[in-house]
Amino acid sequence: MSYAALHGWFERVGNVRHAQAMLSWDEAVNMPPGGGVARAESLAELARVAHDRVSDTRVGGWIADARAEADLDPWQRANVDQIERAWLRARAVPADLVAASSRANTLCEQTWRTARPRNDWDAIAAPLEEGLALARERAACLGAALGLAPYDALLDGYEPGMSREVIDPVFARLKETLPGVVDAALAAQRDPLPLPGAFEEGRQKELAETLMRRLGFDFDRGRLDTSHHPFCGGRPDDVRITTRYSAADPLESLFAVLHETGHALYEQGLPREWRGQPVGESGGMALHESQSLFMERQVCRGAEFLRFAAPILRDAFGGDREDPAWSADNLGRIAARVRPGRIRVDADEVTYPLHITLRYEIEQALVAGEMDVGDIPAAWNAGMQAYLGIDTSGDFRDGPMQDVHWFTGLVGYFPTYTLGALTAAQLFEAAAEDLPNLDDAIARGDFEGLREWLRASVHSVGRSRGTLEIVHAVTGGELGVEAFLAHLRRRYIG
Amino acid sequence: MSYAALHGWFERVGNVRHAQAMLSWDEAVNMPPGGGVARAESLAELARVAHDRVSDTRVGGWIADARAEADLDPWQRANVDQIERAWLRARAVPADLVAASSRANTLCEQTWRTARPRNDWDAIAAPLEEGLALARERAACLGAALGLAPYDALLDGYEPGMSREVIDPVFARLKETLPGVVDAALAAQRDPLPLPGAFEEGRQKELAETLMRRLGFDFDRGRLDTSHHPFCGGRPDDVRITTRYSAADPLESLFAVLHETGHALYEQGLPREWRGQPVGESGGMALHESQSLFMERQVCRGAEFLRFAAPILRDAFGGDREDPAWSADNLGRIAARVRPGRIRVDADEVTYPLHITLRYEIEQALVAGEMDVGDIPAAWNAGMQAYLGIDTSGDFRDGPMQDVHWFTGLVGYFPTYTLGALTAAQLFEAAAEDLPNLDDAIARGDFEGLREWLRASVHSVGRSRGTLEIVHAVTGGELGVEAFLAHLRRRYIG
Questions:
Q1: A95 touches chain B (CB under 8 A)
Q2: Beta bridge mates, A238
Q3: What ipTM did this prediction achieve?
Q4: Could you say which of A399, A411, A451, B77 is the most buried, measured as most Cβ atoms within 10 Å of its Cβ?
Q5: What is the mean pLDDT of residues B203-213?
Q6: What's the DSSP call for residue B342?
């Protein structure tokens, strides 16, 4: 009966998570500025309710008793594991610290939204300092309780079991190899023709929805909206993805949508029978990012997909059949442009890991207290010079203020992007082996086999296995850089 | 210190109410159908959390101790009164019944949304029966705890202190007088010219926002969206109003927006210093409806407002300056058309109270158990025949299924519409006395004086006084039908 008690109790936690997810989405998509303070308080309250539930003293007893129940099936056992993990992490952090963090992070993010366009580092420094102090406090509490170094304790919250021990050698290899790959890619690339016209937002949205549907997004259980920054939010039966539109460049928005669609397919493909239970949630953020990058980078920026998509894009914008700008070849040049730049989210996949390395190094120093908020701009500039040869001095907006993460309390999150890129490349290699006609299917716009493969290999697994376990089960190997580097060489150097 | 404890505790309740309000809004405006089950569970969970908080055993002790504190100011005392009221009502209903009601009502509403267009009474009968059984149960619990008859106990939840004893003589007078007013209005009215053109949704929305802004809606603390049915939701610093658009009739949507703007101005005008506290909330639903009807019926459908608005409307839709269809006189004919019909929300204000009487009589019988769901269609048809001379047999869609209320658990709510209409007429008479140049100001599109008058008389009062007290303080009289009947005779018979 203790397992049943746990199950019922965590169903109620899931119901609170639903509210948190929807309020966060609404904040980014709909909320008028005057609603910000009340929203911060409400989200803090929900964080507190969820935390109180997860850390409830009875949960520990139920876990111990459930473990003694003989008739649990493997999924139920995995669910108890996930519940215990959540319980241990929640117990480690006092409820007041949880609510204070939620409130500080929501308000800091709101400040960031107005300060960033003004390039106003001074306005954000104090709220960021407060958010970081709370993050350090959380890291210390979690580290002590879980026997982890403080930074690893934060990381583990985004990608369970991940540690600097796994990341450091991988990132070192990338840091050493990528500059050469960047140079070779720059030398090999051919300039694309610009896409002609101004691109009306309504048409862009229609096109995006057409391709989302084609990839398998279920609009009965999700929607596409507009926000300042593309993201995938919501819950598995109500997935909310967002994008933004540029009248000059329809591919920017489109690839953002295809990226978020990868996230969304993962959410929509989670095991239905485990809705609302911890074991039924998506895995770590590295695995989540692998799903978006699989779709966007491995599939949709590739030549086969663009062969399928080129006429659809051209017709969506009333392009000329004879215009070479709309050819699959030209779209491929645009989709695979390598351009070292300031902005992580605009970066190509060759330079992207260098942006992550910079952030990974700075946030480790911040958590360790070896660096303060005031030190960030100089460290940022030094890193951008060293890794990408770009001087960012005086530029906060497209420098250390460009990403929302630190300003909303997400510290220890950045490495998951690159771990996701590595995983995506490994998974795509495995898919190509398992599905011999994959290239042809993609070129025909037939994604069913691929989607089923992803569903079986990753989506339907939920949290019944960890990321590294899944990588091993699907690819037979360990997480590493070789598949990723091979992919880069193939696509960018040829 | 007990007052402080109460204050802090109810702030946290307010934070949960914020989440409930936003999730309900999102459900009506954004949610894809597949998200319905999870949403119902989440809303049920939040209802339960709020209920557990309000009914917490410690609250009773804090109330008793707070009452003994000598240094409370009148607002703090009124806040304690409101808290006690909420506490007593919450204690009366078991948490399981609250959650079961929330869940059943959300699911019944979802069924209603698909069953209504199909005219499918059978599909809705069982969920409605379940919802009604739960409403009867709530009425019995509340009635026993508060010493009220079951129907009055429900009514009191929507309009505190209201009872059949107050309503019955008022409604009897309307039932007796209105048929004669309807006949006289039908004889007196002049047919309007139709408005020429098809009306693009984007233009309608722009026009609506222009007039909302003009009336004083603060877009920094609110927004306008589209839903199946117009409503005003959200919270005072983030008010969400909705409408729907008809390409054939731009006034339908516009008056709906102006109606909801009346609700919204009330919310936005609530006392800032009491945000999140019970005394800072809007009053009963009759008072709320008085604010929407004040704006829509008393102000915006009147000749002075239409003199101001006619050229704005004409220009918004590119109408011809010489076209008499766009004259204030013709718009006035449209705005004051009397047409006995099936649909309450489309009804003019002369026949509207008869729609309410029908519902009031049926829902009393339902709560008393004198009538069951199966009896509703026949009773509906009999009432529509008797009051409006309309045969509705076989028509469920535009008969008893037309309103969402019963299908979402709102039983005892309908009378507040007509009480609101009476109150609006009384308040407008008082405003016209206090503001001698009111007609001129409205005709010039200057609403500041009127808005400040409403703010001082009603909005800023919050719940520090009851509806009947406010009516008395502002008008010097009691709630009654005379001002309303005089308004009807003036506008519709002349």
A1: no
A2: A235
A3: 0.92
A4: A411
A5: 98
A6: S
